[in-house]
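[job 0412] stage=fold_complex status=start
inputs:
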Amino acid sequence: MQSTLFHRAAVGLTSLMISGMAVASDWTERSNENLRPGVTGVSQEVYDLHTTILWIVTIIGLLVFGLILVSMIRHRRSKNPNPSTFHENVFLEVLWTVVPFVILIAMAVPATRVLIELDDSSKAELTVKVTGHRWKWEYEYLTYEDDNNIGVSYMSNLATPAEQINNPVLAGGLFPYGTAQDAVGSEFPEKDKNYNLEADNPLVLPSGQKVRFLITAADVIHSFWVPDFGGKKDAIPGFVNETWTVVPEGKEGTYYGQCAELCGKNHAFMPIEAKVVSQEEFKTWLAEKKEEAAAAPDLTPFADLDEAMALGEQTYAGACAVCHGNNGQGGVGVAFAGSDFATNEEHLDEHIDVLINGRAAMPAFGAQLSPREIAAVVTYERNAWGNDTGDLIQPQDVQDHE
Amino acid sequence: MSTAAAHDDHHHHAPTGLKRWLFSTNHKDIGTLYLWFSFAMFLAGGLLAMVIRTELLEPGMQFVDPEFFNQMTTVHGLAMVFGAVMPGFVGLANWMIPLMIGAPDMALPRMNNWSFWILPFAFLILLSSVFMSAFGAGNPAAPNFGWTFYAPLSTEYGPASTDLFILSVHMMGISSIMGAINVIVTVFNLRAPGMTLMKMPLFVWTWLITAFLLIAVMPVLAGAVTMMLTDRHFGTSFFNAAGGGDPVLFQHVFWFFGHPEVYIMILPAFGIISAIIPTFARKPLFGYASMVYATASIALLSFVVWAHHMFTVGMPLAGTLFFMYMTMLISVPTGVKVFNWVATMWRGSMTFELPMKWAIAFVILFTCGGLSGLMLAITPVDFQYHDTYFVVAHFHYVLVSGAVFSMFAAAYYWLPKWSGVMPNKLLGELHFWSSLISVNLLFFPMHFVGLAGMPRRYADYALQFADYNFWISIGGFWFGLSQLLFLAVCVLCAMKKGEKAPARSWEGAEGLEWEVPSPAPFHTYDTPPVVK
Ligand code: HEM
Ligand SMILES: [Cu+2]
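[job 0412] stage=fold_complex status=done
writing structure:
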């Protein structure tokens, strides 16, 4: 656990007492209580607009509450035994209709300006197609400067290990985890600083260039949101939404975001990690990625079961565990541990097929995982958790699968 | 008063025991049923919220699985909106509208019975899926797509129990529509002689307008769930892009219902507060006519702001601007109401009995919610706020410390009339202060975590949100437990334990309901009173 309840109470209490100061953790660059100005021009404008309206509503609120307070003190029966009887005042009523109206217009003008600016995603140098999947993001680089044929795309999964997330204190019935002991031993691992925000393959962007995002989804609605870029846009199956950002040069760094539209079980576990690098670095990275994509798949056979199992375990944790459970116990997806499907020779071919092509709620992994990874993970599922079938599937078997 | 008592003799055959409640056509008994039902749902929905807050006490998954967590947020929202708030206001309408306009009963008493008795079954159907889930039947068993049930999460990806959910929403809708028809017919036909429309108490006015909203939008909700049903089972593709449909259409249809719905949940509250503040300020309501017009304009505007819930779906610029301007506009009549209440208090002679305490808390906290609503209306900034805890904070301020607080105010105000005894002061004071402090501990920090970037409907969160979430959970448990005090207050009143209440239970109270004895006899106004 990050800290004990008692510790948290103590930290919370101190932070409440010294309210206004940065709360007792090292999140100086990530505000604990206010919107962040972010790193782009738009995010800064949005932040300024937020600050302005926050002041306006605070002042209106304090005025109204002040009047109520004064009235409660001065116009209580002990102070004012004879109530007056007025119940109308045309001047006042017109006044408090017109004044708010004027304030609203004052707010609407800058809001309209920012909206119009946001709407213009033309003249982008880089176009990235972002696809929301349950529960990961896919980034496809479409065009960069004059290159219209990049062909680089990859999946980005949560990188926080399951042991850090699952700290069950109860088991059974309502609480479908095992106990803490079952899952991670008696100790709770510390949580990383970027707990639930870190991804295995970050989205890489160049600084100082306009990036256009084309946003869509493969299954349900998700929402693509990196707060430091200034806003979110929904990823909707069958639609392609547009948004854009420019991270100025000198602001290279890693920016985190999260899915912002309920998309099912692991909605809270599909972060966006955006790594902004200089243009040279970006070009090098992109060239490498292109080369990787062009290369023929690695079909080197596994020397032995152990080698396949090691890669399989890693792949399983990244791609399968969210639905099928850390210990193959099932969840949204079917269970493998001790199941007929994963142990009976008859189902071996089907096992490979489902992984490549998907079935019902099970997504197709053919395009996301290499033949080597698919072979490894099938091997893993058929040998881990006491399944011990001894089946060793080779990359070539997967490649040959029609 | 004497006429009411004399006419009581005709009705000796009033049934007793279970039959009295099952077959009741009496507006007071049906009102009581609605109110107890609403309170039961409030506690049930609250229990689910406790599960949510327990899981969110600390980062990491400690108690439930994220799938079960989603079921909790979904059913919590549905139970509170359709089970606690709406039936609560219908209960108040049943009890008070006939008493306030001098009618002997609701105009359509049998339909009244039916519209109540549909409800327990609707919720039995909905909640049964939660029990199935809790006891391991099927995974996932309960609806898990949020109270807004966006397609395709609820259609192609919905659990089997989505069909139970659809049936239950249909039943609630039928119940609401019948309740609304009853209010309209009663108000238009059964007013006592001399009770012109512009003499009606504001509670009756706001309910009349609410009833029209209900009739306009509940069929739209029914349409939405019917399209879901045919998408799920009969091969249509209303919301399925792969079949030529449109998932965004679902949101338009839902929010065309959903935004007027949020006003359905607040207009009757405006009526209650407009009854209570003048009583305890001993001064007539400021700007009665402008209150009526403000209510009507809020109701009309509420039909043209729905897309402010969907700014991030990618609408054309012109559409976005239109909905932004309309949404900003709706805060003008809302502001007028608040100013009118303050002006009613001004230079009054106030005392702060329990109903007044709740009413003042309502005015202040509802205003907080209205102001955050104004912030949400500013579209470019909503791109940041949307679907974060900031929105959760906004609607809990308007719905919990707004609508729910107004119902507490109403209960403390009219309990003497309903039960004949004054609500217990000590318990009532404890309930008020305890709720007031905890509700703010619960919901105020949600603004902070929301701005800091915590998305809503998250079963687990990044570490920078941990400190505030801990306090939010403590506030939640505290607020939840405080409501047991209210249960005690109600039980004491139901058992007639307490100081006997006079007909005019509060010194400054005006209106026909205070002319009949406390408790109000089983039948009132068999002969209509004459309103000067
Ligand atoms: C001054 C008046 C108000 C304004 C300008 C306003 C504005 C808004 C806006 C723009 C949103 C969408 C935020 C988002 O999802 O990004 C919203 C959400 C919401 N508002 Fe209000 N609001 C007002 C009053 C009310 C009242 C009186 C109620 C109910 C009693 C209410 C209930 C809600 C609810 C339930 C939601 C969230 C629904 C959901 O997504 O689950 N609002 N409001
Ligand atoms: Cu709305």
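[job 0412] summary: Chain A touches chain B through 117 residues (CB under 8 Å).
[job 0412] exit 0
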